[in-house]
Amino acid sequence: MKLTLRPEWRLWPINSFLGLLDLKTGVTITLLFAVFNKVAGVYGLISVLAGAGGSFAQLSLYLYSSVGLVALAWGINAVKENPKHTLYFSHLFFLDHVLSTVWTLFFAVVWWVYTPHDGRRQANSPAQEAIRESANVSHPMTDAQLAAAANILWHEEKGTAVAVIVLSWFAKIYFALLLYSYATHLRKGTYNVIRNFRFHPSSPPGYLPAYTEDEDNEDFYIPSLRTHHPNSTSSNIPDFVSAPGRSGRHSARQSHSSLGKIVIPLQENGDVLFEENGR
């Protein structure tokens, strides 16, 4: 049994990236952002192996990001107008967004709830402790003053931090919709129609210039049958055959064609004269 959404619940596929760029260009930008995100995880893994330390959650995220680079390398090749592979990669991208959301919520709770924001410096590894001791930095502020200043700074910056996290989350949702829309257009065969998409502010929604251009081209190449060129030897030959071999007939024969009513008198020598009525 195949589960599908109702037609009224289905989302219309996106035709462009932010209404400015081609859909495939938007997919490429999405993949570049994803690669940049996963490469940051590789650097985190290198720092952990170098002795910087870290929790189990951080180490698992770094390992997952390293493996995700392999999936992205496959996805970059998969989106080359292959509908089946593009759909599979869209599912993987959305699954990655779900897993990344779980890690983001975990680190947000740890940072907002369990991490003290009192201004004290914390060493996460013996290397950081050695650097702090060798720097020999002294503060003229007391612990209470340092905690008060850190609390003010925290209240000023936590709103910005929340905004960045929320905007990043919705941006990744939009990127996932781009991938699904690209896969949908490839499966339906409509990508060639929207690939030369240009933004028309005065056009109604759903206007596709390609359809109009095709119809105009079809009308352009239809031959005109109503144009009469009397001086041309190769224009508009009537659709009948007259055999001038019978003598004694001097009466005019009339024939109807798509060009109008034509009177054809036959001469004695067999010549055929064409005269159009009204001319």
From TrEMBL:
GO biological process: inositol phosphoceramide metabolic process
TM region(s), chain numbering: 56-76, 88-114, 161-182
Protein name: DUF1753-domain-containing protein
One Pfam family hit: Kei1
The entry's keywords: Membrane, Transmembrane, Transmembrane helix
Gene Ontology MF annotations: inositol phosphoceramide synthase regulator activity
InterPro entries with a match to the protein in the record: Kei1 (IPR013862)
GO CC, any one term: inositol phosphoceramide synthase complex
